[in-house]
Amino acid sequence: MPVDSERQYLMQVFEFETVVIGSGLAGLSAAYHSSKYGSVAVVTKSKLDISNSYYAQGGIAAVVDKKDSFESHILDTVEAGRGLCDTDAVEVLVKEGRDRVLELIEMGMEFDKKDGDFVLGLEGGHSQRRILHAGGDETGKLLTSFLLQKVIQQPSVKSFENVTALELIKNENCIIGLHAYNFVTGKNIIFKTKAVIIATGGLSRVFLRSTNPYTATGDGIAMAYEAGAKIADFEFIQFHPTALFIPGKDAYLISEAVRGEGAWLLNENGERFMKDVHPRAELAPRDVVAYNIFKQLKKSKSDRIFLSLKHLDKEKIKNRFKNIYNQLKIYGFDLTEDLLPIAPAAHYMVGGIRTNLDAETNISGLFVCGEAASTGVMGANRLASNSLLECLVFGKRASEKAAKLKVRKCNLPQVAPIHIDSSNEPQYLEMQNKIASLMSDSMGIVRDATGIKKAIKRLTKIEKQFSDFKNEYNLFKIKNTAVVCKLIAQAALEREESRGGHIRVDFENERQKFEVHSIQQKNKNIEFEPVRK
After folding, report:
1. What is the CATH number of the domain that holds 98?
2. Which of 33, 148, 309, 456 could cross-link to 399 by cystine, CB 3.0-4.6 Å?
3. pLDDT by residue (tens digit) across 399-439?
4. Which whole number is the average pLDDT over 330-358?
């Protein structure tokens, strides 16, 4: 409900107890649970059903089988995280994760079953079959759609589609509001609130080849960093090993669950090279698989290797991966019979805005959940299908802690409005492409000091060039993109080792001294923080 129809600088002003930014599974989880405690605004820069969560094919990892155990899931997560997982956060994820999944099932969410039992998938890094899926390979779509309907039904929730969050409004170190812009009406909006929950997802679209939707450009990270929030482990970017490679086309993700059902990775000579690399072969953790595909590409001087399912039961594969099968048909491939050309693509931001176990940042009233957060769960490399689980667990935790905050009686400061000048759009697209090329060349799967320093130098120049254009959206976005990419590069330069989703050819091994979290904060030097074992 509006406080005044229009106020300073013709801005709309609304007041809500909690404002959630983002409508992926993390944002929907936070909004649903927050709705029990008061009024909630859900702000999303596109439509409510566009998010990384929506496109997740694999599933959600949870201990629901009697043969599985919390201990096993925790061990697999920590092992994949390469020494950088905070153990208490992993325990919260695994133990509360099962409760959140069972809660969804009680609410009516249907996961795939056979003869009354859940059909559990196996994915890279997991020692047990524990991946629940829905609609075969449409888990993300069905899960987010299900929870979205529950959120929409809550009378205390109001959605703001096509509205982009621009700036966190603080009083000292406390959140008191959010500045946003409506793309449709052209109006600036001020949300008065005691709590903001950032669930804006990742930033993998800053790379040329990515599995993410175009909205995944790190806006929430830039906004939080500008406000003084700590950013952790930002050097770790996960590249998904198996994205369809067609020159000139966007990368199309082929789920890890396909390898879980027995698909092989073949090099140019038709050899299964992963058998000689890791005891789990194609089901090794993602960082291992992606790096070894990279090595094969370099060795053969090719752009792609191949994924093969020719040796598997055709009908079973068609039924299990209906969506992938149909999509590949559009591209001219048969999932069951053809050698599929694949190459790694930027997929998941492992680090993010640093939070505690309640998903709260170092700024009072600012919470983060989902891919935008660094909760301590992912370490240096995310274990497959833990991401949707993290959304559910920490979305609920954020909402519960936010509900306990007291309303602060603070006057909102005047905020300079922002506008869109369409004549700047070509420059924005040109700069985004230049940054994406730079990131792919210098900050991809494999890095070295020379490339990283080149990236930092170029990104610093872009940041300075556009730092004074705070009131025009396209130019504001260029600066933000440069800032988040520079954060990745600076963290990568400081971490002189190879670990998880950060591989330095000039420092090829893990080093004990770097078994710590990197912490970045505006106007401060990078620091390192001990891992909670």
Report:
1. 3.50.50.60
2. 33
3. 999 999 998 877 888 899 999 999 999 999 999 999 999 99
4. 97
Two tokens, residue 109: 């969410």
511 carries an active-site annotation: no
Q: What is the pLDDT of residue 49?
A: 77
Q: Domain of residue 250: give its range.
A: 241-346
The domain total for the chain is: 2
| pLDDT for residue 50 | 73
89 and 178 in a single domain? The answer is yes
Q: Specify the pLDDT at position 4.
A: 38
Instruction: Please tell me the distance from the alpha carbon of residue 301 to that of residue 309, in angstroms, as a whole number.
Output: 24
Q: Rounded to whole angstroms, how far apart are CA atoms 134 and 239?
A: 24
Q: 200 and 104 in one domain?
A: yes
Dihedrals φ, ψ of 367, to 5°? -120, 155
- CA 113 from centroid of its chain's CA atoms: 28
Which CATH number belongs to the domain containing residue 318 in this structure? 3.90.700.10
Indicate whether 518 belongs to any domain. no
Question: Which amino acid, one-letter code, is at 72?
Answer: S
Torsion of the alpha carbons at 108, 110, 111 and 114, rounded to the nearest 10: 120
Token pair of 281 as six digits: 């072969």
Same domain, 164 and 265: no
Radius of gyration of the chain (CA): 22
> Which of 209, 259, 280, 286 is an active site residue?
286
Q: Are residues 260 and 382 in the same domain?
A: no
